[in-house]
């Protein structure tokens, strides 16, 4: 369902320059104030290059996923710009502390006491988020520092929650594991963090859809790479740059020896890396929950939610073509706000 950029801007308030957060191959990201939710959100405008992926369908799946360690998706729109171009657009939860890449830069020494406390919180949060995804048979497929966001919960910047973001590449295991066209894998993700089986050209092991078998523990390989990077500040198989190509990284991951020099990686993180960086997926640790005990988590910890903080929402008239939330809590009245729809407008009225 389309909505014009003019109508969209009446609901989501943002400045093209001041609220610009970044861009990539997928499109552009902005911080905006949502008049629906009464709080800041993130808008991700996808460009035409990702049109082969049905972003709106991915958003509809992601809306159902609510967990403290996942960035929430609130809604999706087809936004039509003045030029006539239509961009698939996601409205997501705003994390106020940047991404993990920036947090790691602020850690001068990952082995000092304060840094180790932060790292423990980070690893625990990622494990809980991945366990929740695993319970829903979902592979994220792009776990990396830039997709791990920090939300500061108090005045102290050390009071934060790690949240897994960017589900545009997530895949439900039972539906599609990885696309295959003319016996070539349509790769998605970041090569330096990809599990070996994603690169493999061995088509002898296929799932029921005739696709290469990729399992949930592909994300645990990426977790091992991430923990390795946190302490060593480099990736064992390289990153794409002017001196290293995608094919070199692919060859390194498939054939180079797995690193064994973990002197700078303390326990329990050394064991996590050792159990995750196993080339044979059948021998690699299978589930995130299998690593819980190493960082002091219980098997059911990923199912526990943080206290719900109600957003401040004021009754307003919204001229737009789509709202996904059918019911929204009101912090002022404690009642449910109903959304009544008509062809011309959507009016939010307090429940009697």
Low-confidence blocks of residues: 173-186, 202-211, 306-352
Number of DSSP strand runs: 17
> What order do the helices and strands follow?
EHEEEEHEEHHEEEEEEHHHHEEEE
Give the strand content: 15-25%
Tell me about the biggest sheet? 7 strands, mixed
- Tell me the Rg in angstroms: 21 Å
Distance between the termini: 31 Å
Helix content: 10-25%
Mean pLDDT score: 79
Helix tally equals 8
Shape: globular
The chain-level structural class is alpha+beta
Essential attributes:
352 residues, alpha+beta, four-stranded antiparallel β-sheet, 8 helices, globular
Topology:
Blueprint: E1 2-4, H1 5-11, E2 12-13, E3 20-23, E4 27-34, E5 39-46, H2 55-63, E6 73-80, E7 86-93, H3 100-106, H4 113-135, E8 138-139, E9 148-152, E10 160-164, E11 171-172, E12 180-181, E13 184-185, H5 196-199, H6 218-232, H7 246-255, H8 269-276, E14 317-318, E15 327-329, E16 336-341, E17 346-350
Parallel strand pairs: 1-6
Antiparallel strand pairs: 2-4, 3-4, 4-5, 5-7, 6-7, 8-11, 9-10, 12-13, 14-17, 15-16, 16-17
Helix pairs in contact: 4-6, 6-8
Can you describe this structure?
The protein is an alpha+beta fold and 352 residues long. The chain contains eight helices and 17 strands. It has helices at 5-11, 55-63, 100-106, 113-135, 196-199, 218-232, 246-255, 269-276, and strands at 2-4, 12-13, 20-23, 27-34, 39-46, 73-80, 86-93, 138-139, 148-152, 160-164, 171-172, 180-181, 184-185, 317-318, 327-329, 336-341, 346-350. Strands 1, 2, 3, 4, 5, 6 and 7 form a seven-stranded mixed sheet that branches. A four-stranded antiparallel sheet has the order 14-17-16-15, with no helix packed on it. Helix 6 crosses helix 8 (269-276). The longest helix has 23 residues, at 113-135. Residues 173-186, 202-211 and 306-352 have low confidence and may be disordered.
């Amino acid at each position: 369902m389309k909505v014009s950029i003019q109508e969209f801007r009446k609901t989501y308030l943002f400045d093209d320059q001041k609220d610009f957060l970044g861009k990539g191959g997928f499109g552009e990201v902005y911080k905006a104030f949502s008049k629906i939710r009464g709080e800041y959100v993130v808008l991700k405008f996808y460009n035409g290059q990702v049109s082969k992926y049905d972003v709106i369908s991915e958003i509809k799946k992601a809306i159902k996923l609510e967990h403290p360690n996942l960035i929430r998706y609130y809604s999706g729109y087809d936004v039509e710009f003045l030029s006539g171009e239509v961009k698939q657009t996601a409205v997501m939860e705003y994390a106020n502390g940047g991404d993990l890449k920036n947090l790691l830069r602020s850690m001068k020494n990952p082995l000092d006491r304060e840094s180790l406390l932060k790292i423990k919180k980070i690893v625990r949060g990622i494990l809980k988020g991945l366990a929740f995804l695993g319970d829903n048979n979902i592979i994220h497929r792009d776990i990396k520092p830039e997709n791990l966001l920090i939300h500061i919960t108090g005045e102290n910047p050390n009071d934060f929650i790690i949240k897994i973001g960017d589900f545009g590449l997530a895949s439900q295991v039972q539906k599609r594991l990885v696309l295959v066209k003319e016996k070539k894998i349509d790769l998605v993700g970041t090569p330096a963090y990809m599990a070996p089986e994603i690169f493999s050209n061995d088509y002898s092991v296929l799932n029921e859809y005739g696709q290469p078998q990729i399992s949930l523990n592909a994300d645990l390989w990426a977790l091992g790479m991430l923990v390795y990077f946190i302490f060593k500040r480099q990736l064992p198989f390289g990153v794409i740059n002017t001196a290293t190509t995608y094919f070199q990284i692919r060859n390194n991951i498939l054939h180079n020896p797995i690193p064994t020099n973990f002197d700078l990686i303390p326990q329990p993180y050394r064991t996590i890396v050792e159990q995750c960086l196993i080339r044979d997926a059948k021998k690699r640790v299978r589930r995130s929950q299998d690593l819980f005990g190493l960082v002091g988590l219980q098997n059911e910890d990923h199912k526990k939610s943080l206290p719900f903080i109600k957003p401040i929402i004021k009754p307003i008239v919204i001229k737009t073509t789509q709202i996904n939330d059918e019911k929204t809590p009101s912090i002022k009245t404690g009642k449910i706000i109903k959304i009544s729809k008509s062809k011309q407008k959507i009016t939010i009225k307090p429940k009697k």
